[in-house]
Amino acid sequence: MQAWRVHRNGEPSEVMQLDETDRPTPGDGQVLIEVRAANVNFPDALLCRGQYQVRPPLPFTPGVEICGVTADGRRVLATPALPHGGLAEYVVADEAGLLPAPDSVDDAEAAALHIGYQTGWFGLHRRARLQAGETLLVHAAAGGVGSAAVQLGKAAGATVIGVVGGPEKAAVARELGCDLVIDRRSEDIVAAVKEATGGRGADVVYDPVGGDAYAKSVKCIAFEGRVLVVGFASGAIPTPGLNHALVKNYSIVGLHWGLYNTKDPAAVRACHDELTELAARGVVKPLISERVPMADAARAVQRVADGTSTGRIVVLPSGGTR
User: What is the pLDDT of residues 55-95, one digit of tens each?
Assistant: First the structure.
């Protein structure tokens, strides 16, 4: 089969190589899956660079989530078992972790209706306890993770403010349903949030960026607000001023979605059921900006690494259109 493999760490476009290799062999409790669609995530770039919290042995195949078909014909969502990631024609995954792909979305959309939306749902509902009528500030609102948070925030009845970089991404964020869009390149985030909220600030901040985004967030967080730390796409990990959190009475809340797979798998399945229902009702729909063939996977991962993409880029190993 064909699989993209990383033989040394570095930038995705430089270190990813399309190889002919054997199909992976399922172990105990695992199944072989034919990949229909592989969603590109920022962790794929970090894996290539050797900067992710998990460092699989070289060579490995990136790709942390897929939609595919099992040998018995089930259409499923899976998180492949590294080092045999999803940017391949076949993967293996734990049987216990498989989720049924929603019938209301195609393969590319299904692949994207997993980690990003699970992260958004657990972050907003389990960790930040977002309530209807509250104001949600979403950084990188036009990206894969941010776009999911925007849709889930609107579904929860929140007023959603999206922060983006540039007019093209601002247009995408408006189409997603943001009530207000702030272009961080030309506008003052803190002033804009305070003006939009009558000086109160945002009740919940969804931050997959870190760095300057976090620094701006704590300057416009509301009384009893919650800053949800999801990731550090900027490459800069903030150092919170706990004295500031004390004085302003806000919470700093972390989210590592992967822990729920081991600590509370029943909650992951319950979340998937709710996401499936929301998708069936058309309340959420993954933003797929591009569907690319297998040959373009390395360029796709590099674009996500560079932060130039919007929504999700999905690789279709079989060359199909679903």
Answer: 999 999 999 999 999 999 999 999 998 899 999 999 999 99
Q: What would the two tokens of residue 13 be?
A: 């476009």
Pick from 157, 162, 186: nearest CA to 172: 162
CA 74 from centre of chain = 24
Question: What angle is formed at CA 56 by the lines to CA 52 and CA 58, rounded to 5 degrees?
Answer: 120
Report residue 234's pLDDT band, with 50, 70 and 90 as the boundaries.
Answer: confident
Residue 214, burial from CB neighbour count under 10 angstroms (0-12, 13-18, 19+): buried
pTM (two decimals) = 0.92
Q: Is the dihedral of CA 307, 312, 316, 319 positive or negative?
A: negative
* Class of residue 264 by CB neighbours under 10 A (exposed 0-12, middle 13-18, buried 19+): middle
DSSP state of 125: I
- Report whether 187 contacts 163 (CB < 8 A): no
List for the chain the helix, strand, coil content (%; round to 5): 35, 25, 40
User: Which of helix, strand or coil describes residue 216?
Assistant: helix
